[in-house]
From TrEMBL:
<protein>
    <recommendedName>
        <fullName>DUF7865 domain-containing protein</fullName>
    </recommendedName>
</protein>
<feature type="transmembrane region" description="Helical">
    <location>
        <begin position="86"/>
        <end position="106"/>
    </location>
</feature>
<keyword id="KW-1133">Transmembrane helix</keyword>
<feature type="transmembrane region" description="Helical">
    <location>
        <begin position="61"/>
        <end position="80"/>
    </location>
</feature>
<dbReference type="InterPro" id="IPR057187">
    <property type="entry name" value="DUF7865"/>
</dbReference>
<feature type="transmembrane region" description="Helical">
    <location>
        <begin position="6"/>
        <end position="28"/>
    </location>
</feature>
<keyword id="KW-0812">Transmembrane</keyword>
<feature type="domain" description="DUF7865">
    <location>
        <begin position="1"/>
        <end position="116"/>
    </location>
</feature>
<dbReference type="Pfam" id="PF25266">
    <property type="entry name" value="DUF7865"/>
</dbReference>
<keyword id="KW-0472">Membrane</keyword>
């Protein structure tokens, strides 16, 4: 029973990671507009061509990393060793908690930056 649940969870996470990674690599501007609004997205994507290129390359690598993690999770889903599954599951839980805390902190900082940029534009 635990083995089939591990398989399903890994495959589900794999599909989500591969899909999100592909969206980040190829549709980043649309994701920024959806998440932050048009004005903030335009400002977050950089003001000079050099900044825009650096941000685009950085986000493309982040999307590629997420895509590779999805492929790795798909491979791990087929491992049948119960001891490894328990170890891997504990590590994933710790990773998810760490990422959630970091995202909450980082997203607040981005929203604050967007608000400051909007206020500076009004002056």
């Amino acid at each position: 029973m635990a083995s089939s649940a591990f398989f399903i969870i890994c495959v589900l996470h794999s599909l989500i990671s591969v899909t999100c990674g592909a969206f980040i690599m190829f549709y980043l501007k649309e994701i920024f507009v959806f998440g932050h609004g048009t004005e903030t997205a335009r400002k977050l994507l950089g003001s000079t061509p050099h900044d825009q290129l650096l941000i685009q390359i950085s986000d493309s690598f982040a999307g590629l990393l997420l895509f590779v993690i999805g492929c790795f999770l798909f491979m791990v889903a087929f491992v049948r060793d119960k001891e490894f599954q328990g170890f891997f599951a504990k590590g994933c839980i710790l990773l998810h908690i760490s990422m959630a805390l970091w995202r909450v902190y980082f997203e607040r900082r981005i929203e604050d930056l967007g608000i400051r940029l909007a206020e500076a534009a009004c002056w």
